Amino acid sequence: MTQLLDGKTAIIYGGGGGIGGGVARTFAGEGATVILAGRTRATLDAVANDVRSAGGSAEVAVVDALDEQAVDDHVQDVVSNTGRVDVSFNLIARGDVQGTPLVDMTADDLLRAVVNGLRSSFLTARAAARRMIEQGSGVILHLNSASGDGAMPGMGSTGPADAATESFMRYLAAEVGPHGVRVCGIWTAGVAETLSKEKLQGIGGENAPDPRTAADMIAGMAVLRRVPRLADVGEVATFLASDRAAGMTGTMTNVTCGLVLK
User: Fold this and answer.
1) Could you give the number of structural domains in the chain?
2) Is the confidence at residue 254, as pLDDT, over 80?
3) 262 within a domain of the structure (yes/no)
4) Would you tell me how many other CB atoms lie within 10 Å of the CB of residue 1?
């Protein structure tokens, strides 16, 4: 049976993280050569070893997605080595802050996620889009929590950061579409395997709920009464990156298990 991403080259920024690693494993399982980019070699190597052990193809590159020259140089290296870039997916951590009322939040805490998210998305998408335009095809993916199109108390910097990146990506889709390049996104939140104590406290502070409590809270509000899993996100991302989604661009796909209904 033909694999969905057979012969494709996919760069995953934040490839050593929870969602990045999960997506990388799924992409590789569907035939893609995954290029794992991030700032921490140890976590990137761990994912690459998993991919190779399962029979997939993975390469590792230490790249800061906020460094314009580093991103451009890396994409050039990928093209020189593989001949093309078929998929680019930015999944780096933005430094979100939640659980603090906006009136009590510092400007730095509010703007960090907005600036990091928009800058890294712009730099990685621009570098990929330039190559994809030349080759006449490609898919640029992004992910957020769907908080940018609504208002929920306590979400802090996440809503503005989601909105900024999603708006940019829609504009990008309109500009690169005539060149055969698609731009799609995924909404998800509370992915089960990523709900670690360290991550939750990093976003919500010392008063953040423990992972089990957080998962139960999210599941209780979701229509499907469960939280998304890495497999759910990975499978949807694979579909969007594949030619089976050739008619989709400038749109978001909802993988929140019904936490968000839109």
Assistant:
1) 1
2) yes
3) no
4) 3
Is 22 inside a domain boundary? yes
Which residues share a beta bridge with 90?
A: 13
> Amino acid identity of 107?
A
Give the predicted TM-score (pTM) of the model.
0.94
The CATH number of residue 203's host domain is 3.40.50.720
**Is position 261 within any domain?**
no
Distance CA 66, CA 117 (A): 9
pLDDT tens for 83-109 read 999 999 999 999 999 989 999 999 999
Q: How much of the chain exceeds pLDDT 90, in percent?
A: 83
* Burial environment of residue 208 by CB neighbours within 10 A (0 to 12, 13 to 18, 19 or more): middle
Work out whether strand 9-13 and strand 33-38 pair parallel, antiparallel, or are unpaired. Answer: parallel
Three-state SS letters, the chain = CCCCCCCCEEEEECCCCHHHHHHHHHHHHCCCEEEEEECCHHHHHHHHHHHHHCCCEEEEEECCCCCHHHHHHHHHHHHHHHCCCCEEEECCCCCCCCCCCHHHCCHHHHHHHHHHHHHHHHHHHHHHHHHHHHHCCEEEEEEECCHHHCCCCCCCCHHHHHHHHHHHHHHHHHHHHHHCEEEEEEECCCCHHHCCHHHHHHHHCCCCCCHHHHHHHHHHHCCCCCCCCHHHHHHHHHHHHCHHHCCCCCEEEECCCCCCCC
The whole-chain average pLDDT of the chain stands at 94
Does residue 259 form part of some domain?
no
* Sign of the Cα pseudo-torsion (25, 75, 3, 254, in order): positive
Residues spanned by the domain of 13: 9-254
